[in-house]
Every structure is written in structure tokens, then in C-alpha cells.
Amino acid sequence: MATITDVAKQAGVSVATVSRVINNRGYLSANTKAKVQAAMDALHYQPNIAARNLHGKATHTVGVILPDIINPFYAELFQTVEQLLFAAHYQTVLCTTNGEPEKEKKYLRLMAANQVDGIISSTHNPDLADYQNPAVPTVAFDRVLSDQIPMVGSDNEAGGRLIGDYVAQHQPKCCLILAGSQEDLAPLSPRIAGMQAALAVTPSAVDQVAVPFDQPAPVRNQLIRQQLAEKDYDAILCTDDLTAITVFESYPADRWPLITGFDGSKFIRQYYPALTTVIQPLEDLCQLAIRLLRNNIDGGKEKAASYQLPVTLHVGQTK
């Protein structure tokens, strides 16, 4: 097995220079970095992360905690984060919690014990004590986790208003706001608050129902269909695109009411072009989250502020 000394000899540089390349520390010319990387590739050399941990050195590893990757938005979020981090010479570890606090707690402590350089978390368990005094630099995605952690997200209330204004233009008589979590209703989530504010100027009747994701998909889908059967809704505003897809599939294509979603992943726009939804600026959000995280990793004191980026309305294609 090749050693760091073998790499230095192959590249014609000192062991200290190889170490600086591995740890991305100090100024090094592009030519030197290329020589060292070529030597590492030729010798199939892998830095010993465990040994670097023991010496308190950076591992160039970032942990990403998500509720799941079944949701196309979270899958696209992770892919974008992973690609951006890889370009910055970081490797990525993915953990999914399925909304379970104990699972999330174990992952947070496992990451801290293995000394990841930082964590990006987009979960639904802000009450975990681990977030009150994070062991490693952490950035929250679309969730306020604590006053110690910066949060990056979209302007959800403005997005809700965009959807509400669009629906109001169609003058519906009976609307349903369909949420993916009970927490969205008490207190009202910014998305729903925005929808309600826009619909308040219309004479429409507006119902609100939550059908949480923390149950088997067939059960959840059946509960949604039962709710839709209770009234003749002519507009259904969903707080996420997956719920909107279930609503689409609950009606014959020639009897679709006005259906809207929220998130606007590339997958949804490609395979469900009829869905009107709000597009979150995912690439910009990920770039900002990584910039904030790397600044904290490098010793900066990034204030724990909330950063909200503007969203856009995507009007679905109709035949």
C-alpha cells in the first residue's frame, strides 16, 4: 500500500507539500497540485482519514441530513450539494432520518465523533438539544434549527402569495389548502400564510387539511382521496409537489380541478408539465449554504441569520 512518502517521491515534492495538497492548506501552484494528484492517482493512494481525525486535521467531509430522498426535491438538493462540494474538494456523507428524532440524534453524534468538517441539515426536528450547541459548524436548509445556526431557505410566504394570486385569478368557489405536515397548520407555515393572504380578497371558501408524510404512501394517498371526495373543490393548493401529484392522480384527466404545488424540482417540471408550482432557486440556495458552511469551517464567525432567496412561479402547460 502506497504511503505519503511514496507520493512525495513520485511527484518530486516534499512530504509536507503532499500534506498541504491533501488538506488544501496554504498557497500551492496549480502545477504542484496537479503533480501531487497525478502521483496519488498513479499509486492509488488514499489519505487515512481516521489518522487525520486523531491529529485534529480537516477531513474534507461534510455530512448532509435530509428527511428522505424519495421526494424529488430532496434528491435534487443532495445531488446539487454533492456536486458543488466535490468541486470544492469535499466528500459528502448522506443520512436520511425519515422524520425520526432518535435517528437524527444518532447521526448527529456519529458525525461529530467521526469529525466531519461540517453539517448541512434540512430536517423537521429543531427541538433536538444537539442543535442548541452544535459540535461542528452547521447550516440549516429551510428550517430554523436554533439561534446558533444560520438558515438558508426560500421566501416561502412570497411563494404562497404567488400561488394564491394565481388561483384567485381563476375565481374558484371552493378551495382546499392541502398540507404535508400537521405543523404547517398550527402555527401556520409561511407558505400557507401567503396563500391565505392572497385568497382572503376573494369570496372563495377555503378549507385547510394536513395529511402528514409520516405514514405509508398507500395510506396517505387514500386519506388524500377521501378528503377530495368530501367536497367539489375547484382549486387545490398543495404545500409540496408530491402531494400535488397524488391529487392529480385522484381525478380523471378530463376532470382536473386547478391544482398547484410547491418546490419546482427539475423532475417535476419535466414529468408533470401540467403542474403549476413555485420554483425554489436550488442552485443558489446550495451555493449560499456551502459558502456559509465553509466560512465557519475556516474559522469565520458567520452570524446565525436567516437568508431567504426569491422564488418564481412556474405556470403549468395545458393542452
Automatic annotation (TrEMBL):
Keywords: DNA-binding, Repressor, Transcription, Transcription regulation. CDD domains: HTH_LacI. One of its GO terms (molecular function) is DNA-binding transcription factor activity. Gene3D superfamilies: 3.40.50.2300, lambda repressor-like DNA-binding domains (1.10.260.40). The keyword Phosphoprotein does not apply. This is Sucrose operon repressor. It comes from Schleiferilactobacillus perolens DSM 12744. Residues 2-56 form the HTH lacI-type domain.
